[in-house]
Amino acid sequence: MSEHAHDNHTGPIKTPKQLWWTAFFAFVVPVFLIIGLVFYVTKADKPQAGAVNPELATAQRIQKVGTVELRDANRPLAAGADVYKAQCAACHEAGLVGAPKHGDKAAWAPRIAQGYDTLVNSALKGKGAMGAQGGGAFRDIEIARAVAYLANQGGANFTEPAAPAAESK
Predict the structure, then answer these.
(1) Residue 127 bridge partners (DSSP)
(2) Domain ranges, ordered by start, for the chain
(3) For the chain, N or C: smaller number of CB within 10 Å?
(4) pLDDT (tens digit, 0 to 9) for every residue of the chain, 169 residues total?
(5) Which class for 119: exposed (0-12), middle (13-18), buried (19 or more C-beta within 10 A)?
(6) Which CATH superfamily, name and number, covers 80-154?
């Protein structure tokens, strides 16, 4: 009985030849597979995924973050009606997303009661669904002129702001 007790505790490898093949397949073959994969991946330059033109892809990655836009500081100020047509009419003509319609005295009365400065501040900084108009294509004084024009069409009697006096040195 003692002779058979040791048979239960032996492993699957019974000969040195089996040990050699097990070591070969367990360690040597994976090492050669990894070396082969590394060689395959690094053997040639490959463009980025989706980049057909590597020069264009490089140019897009290193492009400037911001741009500088030069404007003529001496250009004459636009009239309120012109600024309204260019910047405000898209929403105020149709009354989109709660914008008071051009010439609708009932819709403009509570806004006019808040005062001209409040209306200009709302136009420059944005209010409700209306985005900020300040810092765009028009100067702040031109936006203020458009506010005066639009409010006057709705029953106000605001004076369109004049161009600021030239600063002397």
Answers:
(1) 130
(2) 80-154
(3) C
(4) 555 555 566 788 888 898 888 888 898 889 999 999 998 888 877 655 555 777 777 787 888 887 777 777 788 888 888 888 888 888 888 888 888 888 888 888 888 898 889 888 888 888 888 888 777 778 888 888 889 898 888 888 888 888 777 654 4
(5) buried
(6) Cytochrome c-like domain (1.10.760.10)
